[in-house]
Design goal:
By secondary structure, the chain is an alpha/beta fold. Helix content is 36%, strand content 21%. The strands form six sheets. Strands 1, 2, 4, 5, 6 and 7 form a six-stranded mixed β-sheet that branches. The protein has a five-stranded mixed beta barrel with strand order 16-17-18-20-19. The longest helix has 23 residues, at 430-452. The protein binds iron/sulfur cluster (SF4).
Length: 571
């Protein structure tokens, strides 16, 4: 019985996230393939961050018979809780292992390593020599083949893919328990859930920059199968889920998928899925979504409205319908075969706002749009930046809410149409891109943030993640969490509620809520509105306070003290 280690170097694809606190389906399905082959298989799961922190973790890998590395960020972002494995790092780790068979799977094996927006993908050749097998198909299927072939790599096809999603169902269920080995398990781990792969727009070639059309037309997992997998994850202790691994959730089980570019959504299937998840995971803490095609929402408002209402009925608040806008310039839209016009995107934003802008239990609106723009696409001119900026201004001027604006530069991924165009427009418009980004941050994002979370908003259940100087950074769990800086050094890895007191361009400043005035740190007190350093010195000298009157008496201006009463407690 072979011993198998899974090294999670983390993945980030347009339709799937596996950087902590997320665990992607890749390692879970791999574990399932091994345990389906032999339920007594010994399996170790380690993350690249664990290896960085503790080199002795490598001993476990060195003793294994097989080491499978999951890696590759085809759309790299900025991460707070984990750093994806770099090609050089993998070469050094894998070179140090002599005994095991070494396999690489994930986006890195298929298209190479994305190093950052606007940069060329680093070719797989940079790591190829150190691995015994580069799996260009599905890692779980190929691992299963390898185990059945007594680890003889000559007898397996590294490009073998599942022909039907049902082929991985047993893997998905059986592999769920690997989550217990994740360093963030159980309280800070989000399981990314797959509903389908492939894009309906692949029949018209798909968007020029996207690798998803290479997976063909949609191939759906059945609601009962997804529910069963979530049940197994829930039984293993997971409480946070994101239905994020698909190109467009609103198109899940859509009628005529594979025949029409924009198939009609199927609200009943989504109701069945979400209702089913809630019934088998009644005490889940997070149920969020990702990826919604604005072209679908604009074409089918009646069905989309129903779907948005269903999601809100069963999910947890603070949810985001992330929409790929890419560009609002008609020339760029046409040349890159993008999915929606500016008018269609606006319709979709209005619809999601109409249904989802109501504030929910965690302090944020229930469901809001997030917008993704991609710069450097074919046909882009200086006017493109102007049109995109004017579009965002219009969204703001209409009083709409957005949860997120993501501006990135295209990565010319091998196998996509953008690969032949390359990075020439990224280089040409480098200055325009940075200017556009700056203007959006200053004039759109920050005012939107103030509209989204007015001062005094209470946000619940933030998890403290790290310090920067004397500021503690914390986030809620779920899709695209807002980054909150809390002045003061608070205990890490704990949950707390906060009160919003100020804004950065892309982050919020807050103090713990309620704030115990007798134990609060100096930095936290100094950040309170209108208080100033001198009053803080007086408060520190006169602590502890046992009553409001005592507290107010230490203020030169009692009105300032009265305003602070809504923030503070004395015990
Ligand atoms: S609609 Fe475009 S961006 Fe979205 S998955 Fe399909 S090809 Fe990719």
């Amino acid at each position: 019985m072979p011993t198998i280690s899974i090294l999670d170097g983390y993945i980030d694809e347009p339709t799937c996230l596996g950087v902590p606190p997320y665990i992607s389906p890749y390692p879970r399905y791999l574990a399932g393939a091994a345990w389906t082959f032999d339920k007594k298989s010994t399996l170790f799961y380690v993350t690249i961050d664990q290896i960085r922190k503790d080199k002795t973790t490598l001993d476990t890998l060195a003793k294994s018979d097989v080491v499978v590395v999951v890696a590759g960020t085809s759309v790299p972002g900025r991460y707070l809780s984990g750093l994806p494995a770099s090609p050089n790092e993998l070469v050094s780790i894998i070179n140090s292992l002599t005994k095991p068979l070494k396999l690489l799977c994930g986006p890195a094996a298929k298209t190479g390593f994305g190093l950052g927006g606007g940069k060329h993908v680093q070719n797989i050749q940079s790591v190829e020599g150190v691995f015994d097998l580069i799996i260009t198909g599905d890692g779980d299927i190929v691992l299963s083949d390898l185990l059945h072939q007594h680890l003889n790599i000559e007898l397996v096809d590294p490009a073998h893919c599942r022909s039907d999603p049902h082929m991985i169902q047993k893997f998905a269920e059986t592999g769920a328990q690997i989550v217990t080995q994740h360093p963030f398990y159980p309280q800070y781990l989000i399981a990314e859930i797959e509903t389908y792969r492939g894009c309906s727009r692949s029949i018209v070639g798909g968007c020029s920059f996207c690798s998803e059309p290479a997976k063909g037309t949609p191939s759906f997992r059945l609601p009962k199968d997804i529910i069963k997998e979530i049940h197994m994850l829930y039984m293993s202790g997971v409480r946070h889920f994101r239905i994020g691994n698909q190109p467009c959730l609103f198109s899940y089980m859509a009628n005529d998928a594979g025949k029409k570019e924009f198939p009609k959504p199927n609200p009943d299937a989504i109701e069945q899925l979400f209702k089913g998840i809630r019934s088998i995971a009644p005490n889940l803490k997070t149920l969020h979504i990702d990826n919604v095609n604005p072209g679908v929402v604009a074409r089918y408002p009646k069905e989309s409205r129903r779907i948005a209402k269903t999601i809100i009925k069963y999910h947890t608040s603070g949810d985001v319908a992330a929409m790929g806008v890419e560009s609002t310039d008609p020339i760029v839209i046409k040349k890159n075969n993008l999915k929606a016009s500016a008018e269609e995107v606006l319709k979709a934003i209005r619809l999601i706002n109409e249904v989802g802008a109501v504030r929910g239990q965690n302090g944020l609106p229930e469901l809001l749009p997030g917008l993704n723009f991609v710069c450097g696409l074919e046909g882009e001119t200086k006017n493109t930046f102007k049109l995109n900026y004017e579009f965002l201004q219009q969204v703001y001027n209409e009083g709409l809410l957005l949860r997120r604006i993501n501006l990135r530069q295209v990565i010319p991924i091998p196998g996509t149409k953008m690969f032949s165009v390359g990075d020439k427009l990224i280089r040409k418009h480098k200055q325009e891109f940075h200017r556009f980004k700056r203007l959006v941050r200053q004039n759109i994002e920050r005012p939107l943030l103030e509209r989204l979370t007015p001062k005094g908003t209470i946000l619940n259940d933030l998890y403290t993640e790290l310090y920067e100087g004397k500021t503690t950074f914390a986030r809620q769990l779920g899709s695209y969490p807002l980054l909150v800086g809390i002045p003061g050094v608070l205990p890490l890895h704990t949950f707390l509620d906060v009160n919003i007191i100020d804004y950065g361009y892309r982050s919020l400043t807050a103090v713990p809520f309620p704030l115990n005035i007798n134990t609060a740190q100096r930095e936290t007190l100094e950040s309170l509105p209108s208080i100033g350093k001198k009053r803080v010195i007086r408060i520190l000298a006169k602590r502890p306070f046992t009553s409001k009157e005592q507290f107010l008496a230490c203020f030169d201006d009692p009105e300032i003290g009265k305003k602070l009463l809504e923030f503070v407690t004395f015990t």
